[in-house]
Amino acid sequence: MRRMTRQALVWGVLGGLLAGTLDILYATGFWALYGVAPQRIAQSIAAGVLGRAAFAGGWSTVALGLSLHYFIAVAMGVAYAWAARDFRALRERPWRYGTLYGLVLYAVMSFVVVPLSASPRGGSLPLAWTVCSVIAHVVLVGWPCAWFARRGWDGRWSRSPALPAYLGTHP
């Protein structure tokens, strides 16, 4: 088992930050179509810890919600990078395993984390939210985590190896 390198850790964090940003933009954009204010999205994340009180907390619970959101997203990026250190296939096939990772993350968040949280249970969510959220977890979370892990471990975005900084002298 290899150690987690600083480069892989940094790229895992960056992948998580990108995934977190894309995901929060998706959620705020989706719910804006239903007239929900962006602050409410962040407060709903904070409600996982605070329960209904999060919605009366003002900007402090917005900050808590965003902090929790990014903490979780960065943990997702680092977790993929950590797993990719020993499983080359995770780096070689980022589309495939990023898709699988996004689906697993959606299932864990929806069926484990949220039900175990203090978040209030309400009515049913629109079917469009569920369908779009599954797709968003693949495209906006799983893929960035996978691609950034590849970059962190192998120093490349594509299948071909990265070019060395110095190619030698010209003939």
Structure description:
Helix content is 71%, strand content 0%. By secondary structure, it is an all-alpha fold. The chain has a domain at 6-25 and 72-154. Helix 1 (6-32) crosses helix 3 (59-84), helix 1 (6-32) runs antiparallel to helix 6 (127-154) and helix 3 crosses helix 6. The relative contact order is 0.18.
Beta-strand percent range: under 5%
Q: What Rg is obtained from the alpha carbons, in whole angstroms?
A: 18 Å
Shape: elongated
List the helices and strands in order: HHHHHH
The helical percent reads: over 70%
How is the biggest beta sheet arranged?
none
How many helices in DSSP terms? 6
Mean pLDDT: 91
Alpha-carbon distance between the termini?
Answer: 42 Å
The class by helix and strand makeup works out as mainly alpha
Low-confidence stretches: 165-171
**In total, how many beta strands?**
0
